[in-house]
Amino acid sequence: MKQVKVYAHRGASAYAPENTLPAFALAMEQGADGIELDIHLTKDGELVVIHDEKVDRTTNGTGLVQDYTLAELRALCADNGMDGFAEARIPTLREVLALVKPGKMLVNIEIKTGILWYDGIEEKALRLVEGMGMQDRVIWSSFNHYSIEKIRQLAPEAATAYLLGDIICDVEKYAAAHGVQGLHPGLYNVKMADLLQRYLDSGLTVRVWTVNGAEDLRWLMGQGADVITNDPKLALEIRRGLTAS
Ligand code: G3P
Ligand code: MG
């Protein structure tokens, strides 16, 4: 049986500020199979790694990412209120890829085009990944399925996944019909009825977010689903226990 994978959600964000280099470095150190991160575009067209459209929640600044140049964003502290990380900054996608490139970790790039439409973000990110020779290590996902369609048009061989927020009938058939290989449902979503089993039976790769509790981690990995978690250390311990038993 194939081993399920553990992805660090926004890095090892239970231990270090989300979507920062310390969080991704820690995920690597803890032995995660992959990281998940979110991308937006700055005013000067740079790809940056941050979750929200606005900088308010995770930095000491205010306003939209797209209204800042990269240099202006760099002046912000991205410690997300966590002690000991005053030096943390919003990283570029290139910096995160360069950090993890020497290892084997996979990178789930979530394209944040659900609220704002960043013109050309898909192609820019794709070319960056290709230019760094990491196309075989990247999984593209988005709640905006048109962004995934764009990735597929530009790179039909790319690994792609649909993020699911709501529960959609026959979503596994819809994904397969679009040539998408992965489903990323929310934890609350697969707890309903037999959805997890349906998704797993479809043969698509199922990566459930955001799974932080021990019981949920044990259940999902035991069933054969990959997990996207803020706490890769805990998830890996639980996986070791499942493998041993
Ligand atoms: O990609 C999984 C998860 O990150 C999706 O939701 O809001 O945490 O980006 P969000
Ligand atoms: Mg995300």
UniProtKB/TrEMBL annotation:
Gene3D superfamilies (alphabetical): Phosphatidylinositol (PI) phosphodiesterase
GO BP annotations, alphabetical order? lipid metabolic process
* A Pfam family it matches: GDPD
InterPro entries named among the record's database cross-references: GP_PDE_dom, PLC-like_Pdiesterase_TIM-brl
Q: Single GO molecular-function term?
A: phosphoric diester hydrolase activity
Q: What is this protein called?
A: Glycerophosphodiester phosphodiesterase family protein
Organism lineage: Bacteria, Bacillati, Bacillota, Clostridia, Eubacteriales
Q: Which residues form the GP-PDE domain?
A: 4-240
> SUPFAM superfamilies per the record?
PLC-like phosphodiesterases
Q: Where is the signal peptide?
A: none
